[in-house]
Amino acid sequence: MGVLVDVLSWKGIFVVLITYLAGTIFYRLTLHPLAGFPGPKLAAITRWYEGYYDIVLNGQYTFKIKELHDKYGPVIRISPYELHVNDPAFLNTLYNHDIMKKYAWTYDAHTAKGSTAFTVDHDLHKARRQPLNGFFSKAKVASRQDMIQMYADKLCRRISQYVGTTFDLGAASLAFTQDVANDFIISKSYGSLDREDLDVSMLVFLQGAGREQYQDTKYLVDLATSNDKIKHRRTIIDEILESKLSPSDKTVERIYEDVSTISNAAFETTASVIRPVLFHVFSNPTILQRLRAELESVITTDLKTLEQLPYLTSVLKEGFRLGGGLSTRLQRVSEKDLFYGKWRIPAGHPVGMTPLLMHTDNEVHHNAKSFLPERWIDAETRKRSERGFAPFSKGSRICLGMHLAWAELYIVVATLVQRFDFSFPNATAEDFVEPTARDAGPKTQASGMAWRALIAGGERVTAAG
């Protein structure tokens, strides 16, 4: 009798489970507010569709999304709860200054949820970002150009030691941006450019300098709140502590989350642009000669002068287009309905766009996978490409470090182009277009790829003084 009861119980559980699953599938395919949007049925039923491409196939869902757009159109349903749009005409609708939240599910796995970058709520994000805006302003960055140039010169001194042989310029670019970011943000360098291996594995930052950075944050908080202050350069810690934020947002732990996420993003993303720029400039004699001629035409190479050079600016924009576009989608959740063509996107549902997909779309950028600075000089092609150019996102969540990234690129590229000759025997253009399965993991891993530059001899190769 007991066995029969057990069998009936398991039968009941099985029936309930099947009924629940069938009901869920029916609801998501027919009654859910997103049921009418095109896309694969399996993606509409379960997140495991996305999980297969990102977990089993190592981060390939972005490129599967591109295939789905080719099949289903510019707006598609990519999960039971989420939409994706691939049309630059929708950029300003999605990324604006209206009340928009981030998609909380995306940040569930992050450990620094208190950081400004990972703040989901619109109003809280606005409050946390307010004291940081001035610190990262264009004027503030311009005032630190001597610091950026100092690290560019240090980079040159390292490179000059390897004339006639190969040098890991990929790791060096990351070491340069890491030193600049930490100096700018907390007024301290952790000496990546000074280390023999240039911190190529990033273990020093993640395990050593990460802990040291936390201790430095604690020290700077104590210093800024003590009565016996000593003179020191202002950091973002001072800006946060002197802001109108609540006491809970001024704890050491919360401030460190901002310090770590901002500095991490600042060096990873900028280095990912430096690499393709250097590769394409030094691999194309026409681009290199034209860029050198432009740089030689000016008396001084201060930041303001460099920003006025049209060809250098065009070269950097191509670098941002091919190397600076995030390969992950940036979702927003609107408190009001959004409209795209005939579609009404109901309020409260996340919808995202992926900069990388727009940056490499032939419909937006002619011959999109080619490095063509001229597209930013010709008025017609520039207008076309500007529509689908968003390396820093847009709206209220636009990248905090945008001006710092531009300044670093202007200074380091101009410096290296005038002083060295490189060739890249082990790299191809495809290495700098879009990630593949082999390097689709976190950018810290991709950034450590050892692509090496052969440093040619000649009078142009000089130690930076």
Quick synopsis:
The chain is an alpha+beta fold and 465 residues long. The protein folds into two domains: 1-59; 82-208 and 267-455, Cytochrome P450 (Cytochrome p450, Orthogonal Bundle).
Kindly estimate the percentage of residues that lie in beta strands according to DSSP: 5-15%
The helix content is 40-55%
Broad shape? globular
User: Structural class, judged by helices and strands?
Assistant: alpha+beta
Number of domains: 2
Give a structural overview.
With 465 residues, the protein is of the alpha+beta class. Helices cover 52% and strands 6% of the residues. It has helices spanning 2-31, 41-45, 48-56, 61-72, 91-94, 122-133, 138-142, 145-160, 169-186, 203-225, 236-241, 252-283, 285-296, 303-307, 310-323, 355-359, 379-387, 402-419, 443-447, and strands spanning 75-77, 83-85, 100-101, 166-167, 330-334, 338-340, 343-345, 351-353, 422-423, 453-455. The chain crosses the membrane at residues 12-31. Its cofactor is heme. It holds the Pfam family p450.
Keywords summarizing the entry:
465 residues, five-stranded mixed beta sheet, three-stranded antiparallel beta sheet, 6% strand
Spell out the blueprint of helices and strands.
Layout: H1 2-31, H2 41-45, H3 48-56, H4 61-72, E1 75-77, E2 83-85, H5 91-94, E3 100-101, H6 122-133, H7 138-142, H8 145-160, E4 166-167, H9 169-186, H10 203-225, H11 236-241, H12 252-283, H13 285-296, H14 303-307, H15 310-323, E5 330-334, E6 338-340, E7 343-345, E8 351-353, H16 355-359, H17 379-387, H18 402-419, E9 422-423, H19 443-447, E10 453-455
Parallel strand pairs: 2-8
Antiparallel strand pairs: 1-2, 3-5, 4-10, 5-8, 6-7, 9-10
Helix pairs in contact: 8-9, 8-18, 9-12, 10-12, 12-13, 12-15, 12-18
